[in-house]
Design goal:
The chain is of the alpha/beta class and 267 residues long. It folds into two domains: 130 residues, Periplasmic binding protein-like II (D-Maltodextrin-Binding Protein, domain 2), CATH 3.40.190; 124 residues, Periplasmic binding protein-like II (D-Maltodextrin-Binding Protein, domain 2). Helices cover 41% and strands 24% of the residues. The protein has twelve helices and 14 strands. The longest helix has 23 residues. The radius of gyration is 22 Å and the shape is globular.
């Protein structure tokens, strides 16, 4: 009679331990739509190391919030954490990315200046030269928007309020679709997302910024300034897991996925 409770206890303990092991093998990434396709492409690499990954979108702010609340193991952020955020989470820089101004492929413009960008996104004008544009911006909470606004000193804290009549979009795919269907559209997006869209035949093109092309060479030599870091963020208790993730992202296979898809690996 005394053995039965012990046997039940051991059985329950074994089942519980098995569930913990299985749960530990599943890793949830959430956040930036810029980082999302890279993580999806690396799923087989994680699988080889015993990790089943699930990748969810939502934007950089979602990445921070879900990681802090424990709803995701790892947050994906295509911007730097704010000072208040950095008190709660650690980060791992995984790649260097840059933003590109883009237009419909039939638009009669190939270059835009920083002054023109500021004038358009603050509502001072809606033209590049004589060409009328419909400015498209990212919604709040998107890392791309925060990097763009910071670079061009846009927003109330810079005394440059953003125009209220802009077309507001969310994920990268929505920006591509919106621009592809508007011959007068003007937007900003991650180079990697734009390059992929152009390869897929989307009718869009990259503009030079102040006469400088957003090429890998110009990013690496510092001539092209509109850059950012792609980060993974996590809680302290995920440090061991992050070491496993870091090991995967530092492999030659992972580095090739980064470079083949338009960003420079940081590991």
């Amino acid at each position: 009679m005394r053995l039965l409770p012990k046997l039940l206890f051991l059985t329950v303990l074994a089942l519980f331990s098995a569930n913990i092991a299985n749960a530990g093998d599943k890793v949830v990434f959430a956040g930036s739509t810029t980082i999302l396709p890279f993580m999806e492409k690396m799923e087989p690499l994680f699988k080889k190391q015993g990790m089943d990954i699930e990748v969810q979108a939502g934007g950089s702010s979602v990445g921070y919030k879900t990681a802090r609340m424990g709803m995701a193991d790892v947050g994906m952020m295509s911007r730097e954490m704010k000072e208040s955020e950095a008190k709660n989470l650690k980060k791992l820089a995984i790649a260097r990315d840059w933003l590109i101004m883009i237009a419909h492929k039939d638009a009669p413009i190939d270059n835009i200046t920083s002054e023109q960008v500021v004038d358009i996104y603050t509502g001072k004008t809606n033209k590049v030269g004589d060409f009328k544009v419909n400015a498209i911006a990212k919604e709040n909470g998107r890392g791309t928007k925060e990097v763009f606004d910071h670079f061009f000193h846009l927003g109330k804290k810079h005394d440059r309020p953003i125009a209220k009549d802009l077309v507001i979009i969310g994920p990268n795919g929505q920006a591509i679709t919106t621009l592809a269907n508007d011959p007068h559209g003007l937007a900003y997006l991650s180079y990697s997302a734009v390059e992929a869209a152009i390869k897929q035949g989307e009718p869009i093109k990259m503009l030079t910024l102040n006469g400088v092309e957003g090429t890998v060479e110009n990013v690496m030599n510092g001539k092209y300034k509109l850059q950012r870091t792609l980060n993974l963020v996590y809680k302290e208790n995920k440090a061991d897991l992050m070491e496993r993730i870091k090991a995967v992202l530092a492999t030659d296979e992972a580095r090739k996925i980064f470079t083949d898809n338009g960003v420079q690996p940081a590991l």
